[in-house]
């Protein structure tokens, strides 16, 4: 049988936990000497798509991107079906429409001005035998980035898939 003090016991325990968590507060994160003009993003597959999103949305601060098997900005909008098509059917990706949509986001102050992308360094890699994201998607990504005048380096000719674990560093100098 529960004690009639049960509600008060729970309150008391919550109060003790709150007080002890305040007493055990962690110290502030350390500051690092990072040049804010040197921030870059990178990722593979969905992480590559996220790196693209981050680069476009925060182009005032992000100065470059390394994208491995990722897709163009806005490509997966408005939802899951579009995202699936964006990964598998490059012929359905209308880069001009994506550029127009991106311009609307800029006009509505939803992302940073795409003029910031000019002179960014961007590296795009997509292996020729990727079983998940069609290799043509990387070319659409490159087409869209080219529109904004980035310093672009691409690699679309290597026979690589999701199991490839090594890449000669000479391929990624930009």
Extended strand count: 4
Low-confidence stretches: 169-174
Cα-atom radius of gyration: 23 Å
How would you spell out the order of helices and strands?
HEHEHHEHE
Structural class: alpha/beta
Q: How much beta, percentage-wise?
A: 5-15%
Largest pleated sheet: 4 strands, parallel
The strands making up the biggest β-sheet line up spatially as 1-2-3-4
Number of helices: 5
Summarize the structure.
The chain is an alpha/beta fold and 174 residues long.
Question: What does it look like?
Answer:
It is globular, with a radius of gyration of 23 Å. The protein has helices at residues 6-23, 46-57, 80-88, 95-107, 136-147; strands spanning 39-44, 62-68, 121-125, 151-155. By secondary structure, it is α/β, with parallel strands linked by helices. 37% of the residues lie in helices and 13% in strands.
Based on the model shown, name its key terms.
174 residues, alpha/beta, 5 helices, disordered C terminus
Set out the fold topology.
Elements: H1 6-23, E1 39-44, H2 46-57, E2 62-68, H3 80-88, H4 95-107, E3 121-125, H5 136-147, E4 151-155
Parallel strand pairs: 1-2, 2-3, 3-4
